[in-house]
Amino acid sequence: MIKVGIIGTGFVADLYMRSIQLGTNFELVGAFDRRPERLAQFCAFWKQPAFTSQDELLSAIGPGGIVLNLTNPSSHFEIGMAGLEAGCHVYTEKPLATTLKDAKTLCDQARESNLMLASAPCSFLGEAAQTVGAAIRENVAGKVRAIYAELDDGFIPQARYADWISESGAPWPAGDEFEVGCTLEHAGYYLTWLISIFGSIRSVVAASSRQVCDLLPVDAPAPDFSVATLFFESGVVARLTCTIIGPHNHSLRIVGDRGVIELDEAWNNTAKVRFRRRFNLRRRLMESPIAKRLKLPGETHPKVGRWGSASMNFALGVTELADALVEKRASRMSIDLALHLTEVTLAIQDSEETTGAQRMTTRCDPLEPMPWAQKLG
Ligand SMILES: NC(=O)c1ccc[n+]([C@@H]2O[C@H](COP(=O)([O-])OP(=O)(O)OC[C@H]3O[C@@H](n4cnc5c(N)ncnc54)[C@H](O)[C@@H]3O)[C@@H](O)[C@H]2O)c1
Question: Is residue 315 part of a domain?
Answer without folding.
Answer: no
